[in-house]
Amino acid sequence: xxxxxxxxxxxxxxxxxxxxxxxxxxxxxxxxxxxxxxxxxxxxxxxxxxxxxxxxxxxxxxxxxxxxxxxxxxxxxxxxxxxxxxxxxxxxxxxxxxxxxxxxxxxxxxxxxxxxxxxxxxxxxxxxxxxxxxxxxxxxxxxxxxxxxxxxxxxxxxxxxxxxxxxxxxxxxxxxxxxxxxxxxxxxxxxxxxxxxxxxxxxxxxxxxxxxxxxxxxxxxxxxxxxxxxx
Length: 231
What we know:
By secondary structure, the protein is α+β, with helices and mostly antiparallel strands. It has eight helices and eight strands. The strands form two sheets. A six-stranded mixed β-sheet has the order 7-6-1-3-2-8. A two-stranded antiparallel ribbon has the order 4-5. Residues 24-44 are annotated as: Disordered. GO terms for molecular function: peptide-methionine (S)-S-oxide reductase activity.
């Protein structure tokens, strides 16, 4: 199993740069710039995706996490969304302001003949810091917590075994892994303008200063896992 031994996510910026809108006007500004995106532009159809397996993870801002998993070979599609809470049909404003128990999460469609669930778990742990409680980089709050979701006992065992391996090899020193290992219940797709956000908004300050550097660090550590066009 592939293990990254150094803490992956380093604070690069002042806390003023984050995935979370600082006030309602900021949220409205983002929505207005993307209001024409009424469809999931460039996404595969549900019919096309039916033949693939799914996996669900939360590890900070979904703009970052979506881009990371989309760079992995065998991954056919990734959606940004919300999971881990009980509230139905949550919105970005509700989740990002901590008004629900949901976390920003991703839905990963993958070909198990190319990439295994075990390898996706390795990608998950290798692309964020699982020792920071309710926080990733400049993003703070339970909506940015680390969660590995499982759909059956086999997936649960894979996650727990890999966490034990990380601990036994002292990857994080005396820092405890705080990742939640949670049975998957429901995933709600985020609003259309969040899908492929990093790809479509390369000049956004958060994307330039947090998301792209995080993606590049992942690529440096997982070169053998990348799609040909992601190198």
